[in-house]
Amino acid sequence: MNCETARSLIHGYADGELDLERSLEIERHLAGCAACTAALREIRVMRSGLRSGTVAFDAPAELRAKIRDAIDDRRRAEDVASRRSSSRLAMLSRSPSRWTGGAFAAAAVLMIIVLVGGLRRSASSTDALIGSEIVASHVRSLMADHLADVISTNQHTVKPWFDGKIDFAPTVEDFAAQGFPLTGGRLDYADGRPVAALVYRRNKHIINLFTWPIADARETAAQVEQRQGYNLVHWDKGGMAYWAVSDLNGAELSKFAALVRDDGAPVASPG
């Protein structure tokens, strides 16, 4: 690991956010690099100062007064809104005839629509967050020259390497005959947990295939999307999540995804 790579990861190391493999790499580099060790020391000194309050300053009296006035204005506005709401509820309670069966049914339908819409947005937001993590991990593996912890084109070498390192056994296949040779695998981190990253090639293009178990055993159709110039295909199958990412064009990455899925199902673009 060189100093440029170490500096890009040193804040994550100081925060305890790196996985074990990356942390060990940083520590090995720090053992022989005085400059990066000094940079880490500066980060820790700065954080110590922030925790101790020695870099805190008292706000000017004028600013404190403005903040207090803003808080008072907000409280008054909330009190007015609360009184109006209470008044409306009282009026409704005195006029129950206004709420017919049809009105209650409409309100129930509206609530269901809101709840379902919220759930869909939540799932979409989660996928968006994971997608960003996947792209970041893919780019980091290229920048840090850390594509693989185990380098092999043999699936029977790559798969056993994960034993004892993660709490699941990833499915590992070689698609060299179809033009997507396996080149290795590594440990990575996504969706708040350690995951398996399998590395494939398509000519000069690198494909990272991330996979990990999920609680929901549902199966979802593969979808292709683009983030930061990279194509991603993701799907759930057999209690596992799959995310493939590459600078390969979307059509060829979709072909790779179909091979992994082993069902030839078409890949859909998100609507």
What does it look like?
By secondary structure, the chain is of the alpha+beta class. It has helices spanning 3-14, 20-31, 34-52, 61-94, 101-143, 155-161, 250-261, and strands spanning 150-151, 182-190, 193-202, 205-213, 223-227, 230-237, 240-246. The chain has three domains: 3-52, no CATH class; 60-94; 120-261, Phosphorylase Kinase, domain 1. It is 51% helix and 18% strand. The longest helix is centred in the middle third of the chain and has 43 residues, at 101-143. The two termini are 42 Å apart.
What's the order of the H and E elements?
HHHHHEHEEEEEEH
CA radius of gyration is 27 Å
- What's the mean pLDDT score? 81
Q: Count the DSSP helices.
A: 7
How do the strands line up in the largest sheet? 1-2-3-4-7-6-5
Q: How many angstroms does the end-to-end distance come to?
A: 42 Å
CATH topology of the largest domain: Phosphorylase Kinase, domain 1
Strand content: 15-25%
CATH architecture annotation name of the largest domain = 2-Layer Sandwich
Percent range of helical residues: 40-55%
Shape by Cα distribution: flat
Note the main sheet. 7 strands, antiparallel
Number-wise, the strands total: 7
Number of domains: 3
Low confidence ranges = 118-122
Main structural class:
alpha+beta
For the record, the CATH class of the largest domain is: Alpha Beta
Can you identify the CATH superfamily of the largest domain? MucB/RseB, C-terminal domain
SSE order and pairing:
Layout: H1 3-14, H2 20-31, H3 34-52, H4 61-94, H5 101-143, E1 150-151, H6 155-161, E2 182-190, E3 193-202, E4 205-213, E5 223-227, E6 230-237, E7 240-246, H7 250-261
Antiparallel strand pairs: 1-2, 2-3, 3-4, 4-7, 5-6, 6-7
Helix pairs in contact: 1-2, 1-3
